[in-house]
UniProtKB/TrEMBL annotation, chain A:
Family indicated by similarity: Belongs to the ABC transporter superfamily.
Keywords of this entry: ATP-binding, Nucleotide-binding, Transport
PANTHER family per record: ABC TRANSPORTER ATP-BINDING PROTEIN, ABC TRANSPORTER ATP-BINDING PROTEIN NATA
GO molecular function annotations of the record: ATP binding; ATP hydrolysis activity
CDD domains per the UniProt record, alphabetical: ABC_DR_subfamily_A
Record protein name field: ABC-2 type transport system ATP-binding protein
SUPFAM superfamilies: P-loop containing nucleoside triphosphate hydrolases
Domain ABC transporter: 2-231
UniProtKB/TrEMBL annotation, chain B:
Keyword Hydrolase: no
Topological category with respect to the lipid bilayer: Multi-pass membrane protein
Localization in the cell: Cell membrane
Record carries keyword Membrane: yes
Main location, first listed in the record: membrane
Organism placement in taxonomy: Bacteria, Bacillati, Bacillota, Clostridia, Caldicoprobacterales
Assigned GO CC terms: plasma membrane
Cross-referenced InterPro entries: ABC-2_transporter_component
Protein name: ABC-2 type transport system permease protein
UniProt organism field: Caldicoprobacter faecalis
Spans traversing the lipid bilayer: 12-33, 45-65, 95-125, 131-149, 156-172, 184-203, 210-233, 253-278
Keywords of the record: Cell membrane, Membrane, Transmembrane, Transmembrane helix
Length: 315, 287
């Protein structure tokens, strides 16, 4: 469906995107994850034909962006990070204009506009000037603009940034819904968002792809360090000593006391060893009950750190 | 193209821009009409058309400053450039919208000669010819404004630079009179042009080889032309700058002469600036 072939973008000496290769299959929702300035937006701008790559090319349904840009652009709906809205138009006028520049048939225009306004729930503001809308509504108008013409490919650059939690959940479920009919590329710097919505994740850092996998595999691979957070009822020193002596425990440290008579500790296991059961039996035998135990999710920063160092070891 | 045209035209009248343009233009035109026709009871309407050209200096920047610069500032160019429209279509749509506002204003001023015709005979065809010239001159100025607007994302800068460019064209005929016309200065000027082009190529492509090649070929042509026809460089500066003298061509129209060459000149002039605008937008995507 989408092939990104050896795409490089240079701004003078600075390399924004460095030989990026990936493909997206029909019906897939691909997450594009990376810190600010990693090259996510640049890659998306290249796929949509907003800017040109220094080297390499992009193909959508077999059409090359350099050779047949109009065929490619017809097939893509793009929602940039800052929705491209004309502040002096009403929502309806704006969507009408977008339908015109996307060359939608006059006959079907009205009906498809109604459908899209229903879908993203902006029907009640259709007569209002865009400059008077709230951030959340502007974001939705931006999404509506991308949906016009029901393009087979949707590219969404940070679609939930700046929204309140309720709106974030709504937009996410909307994207999931859209994923049934569209191929979607979505960028984000929030890990849970990507793992909630996407079937596959590409992590990009400093213009290079550093990892590409399903969210499950990625987190499995990344959480192999197996970090657990525990709250145990018992004296600090004995509990810590017991845990440290357990086989497979690499490190354990006290995080503090949040409830009187208990202690919170962070346990790090050796690679590929599940220490949850031994930990439970050992502590229960000593009659130090575990009040809670949970695995600690890696933060995005830690994942990046891990992925980038892994890559260095491989190369 | 039609969609962009319609949107731009609406935008002119959804903001004060369109009204300021029309209002100011009609005010100046009305003042001149009152003083040179009504109060003096003169049927010579064409003199109004020739004396109000200075109004372009002020109103054309108002009309064009927003066109491209606002798109890149508001990032709405992302919508246009990722839609199946061609860049040429976008530029033409915007250009014709600005020209349409200008044409609409011009049509309103047609009332003045009609008023005059009630009181005596007017030279109808002379006035029609004058209007054609006036329209083409304005359209050429608008193409310059559109081009300058594509160079920046700041409306104020676009307006000031457009004003300066038009002012330069305005005083060009006066400047030309003071320029040297001897052979040496003509050759020096030609060499400076070649160096300028080569430097421009170097700063846009950073390719020293191509730039040097262009400079060498340019100097070769100058030398070749000199040996073939040594009188060629007499008055070369003046002849080159006269290409940009939009107002000189306009004088023909004001004398009631309607010939093809100034019409072709104005249309070509606008086409060149529209082409440059398209190139600027395309280039920004490649850099």
């Amino acid at each position: 469906m989408i092939q990104v072939i050896d795409v490089t973008k240079r701004y003078g000496q600075h390399v924004a995107v460095d030989h990026v290769n990936f493909t997206v299959e029909k019906g897939e929702i691909l997450g594009f994850l990376g810190p600010n300035g990693a090259g996510k937006t640049t890659t998306m701008n290249i796929i949509t034909g907003y800017i040109s790559a220094t080297e390499g090319t992009v193909k959508v349904e077999g059409f090359d962006i350099l050779e047949e840009p109009e065929e490619v652009k017809k097939r893509i709906g793009y929602m940039p990070e800052f929705p491209p809205l004309y502040m002096d138009m009403t929502v309806q006028e704006y969507l009408d204009f977008v339908s015109d520049i996307k060359k939608i048939d006059r006959a079907t225009k009205k009906r498809s506009m109604e459908k899209i306004m229903d879908l993203v729930k902006i029907g009640d503001v259709r007569k209002r000037l865009i400059k008077n809308l709230s951030k959340g509504y502007k974001q939705r108008v931006g999404l509506a603009q991308a949906l016009i013409g029901t393009p087979p490919v949707l590219i969404l650059d940070e679609p939930t940034v700046g929204l309140d939690p309720k709106q974030i959940i709504e937009i996410r479920s909307l994207i999931k819904e859209l994923g049934k009919e569209h191929t979607i590329i979505l960028s984000s710097h929030i890990l849970p968002e990507v793992s909630a919505v996407c079937g596959r994740v590409i992590i990009i850092n400093k213009g290079k792809i550093v990892a590409s996998d399903t969210p499950e595999n990625l987190s499995k691979r990344l959480s192999s360090a197996g970090r657990l957070s525990l709250r145990v009822a018992g004296p600090e020193k004995q509990v810590l000593k017991l845990v440290r002596e357990l086989e497979g425990v690499k490190n354990a440290e006290v995080q503090g006391v949040k409830e009187p008579g208990t202690v919170d500790i962070l346990v790090e296991a050796e690679m590929d060893i599940d220490i949850r059961r031994p930990l439970f039996y050992a502590l229960s035998r000593a009659e130090y009950p575990i009040l809670y135990m949970k695995s600690v999710d890696l933060t995005l920063e830690e994942i990046f750190l891990q992925v980038t160092t892994e890559e260095r070891e491989v190369s | 193209m039609l969609a962009v045209f319609k949107r731009e035209l609406k935008a002119y009248f959804a903001s004060p821009t369109g009204y300021i343009f029309m209002g100011f233009f009609l005010l100046i035109c009305g003042i001149f009409f009152a003083f040179s026709n009504l109060l003096t009871a003169s049927p010579d309407y064409i003199s109004v058309l020739s004396s109000i050209t200075f109004v372009f200096l002020i109103v054309v920047p108002v009309l064009t400053m927003r066109l491209m610069s606002e798109e890149s500032r508001q990032k709405t160019d992302q919508l246009l450039l990722t839609s199946p429209l061609s860049v040429t279509g976008i530029v033409l749509g915007k250009y014709f919208a600005a020209v349409a506002v200008f044409l609409l204003t011009l049509l309103i001023t047609c009332l003045y000669p009609i008023i005059l015709s009630f009181f005596g005979t007017i030279a109808v065809w002379e006035i029609v010819g004058g209007y054609i010239g006036f329209f083409l001159l304005g359209a050429a100025f608008i193409s310059i404004g559109l081009f300058i607007s594509s160079l920046t994302d700041n409306q104020v800068i676009a307006a000031v630079v457009t004003f300066s460019a038009l002012l330069f064209i305005w005083i060009l005929d006066w400047v030309i009179q003071g320029l040297p016309t001897d052979r040496i200065s003509g050759i020096v000027f030609a060499c400076a042009l070649v160096v300028g082009v080569a430097a421009l190529v170097y700063f846009t492509t950073r390719n020293i080889f191509v730039s040097v090649a262009i400079a060498v070929v340019g100097f070769g042509i100058i030398a070749g032309v000199y040996f073939a026809n040594e009188y060629f460089f007499d008055g070369f500066i003046v002849r080159t700058l006269e290409w940009f003298s939009l107002l000189k061509r306009y004088e023909n129209f004001m004398m009631g002469i309607l010939s093809l060459s100034p019409i072709v000149y104005y249309i070509t002039f606008s086409a060149v600036f529209l082409f440059l605008t398209v190139r600027v937008i395309e280039k920004r995507r490649w850099s």
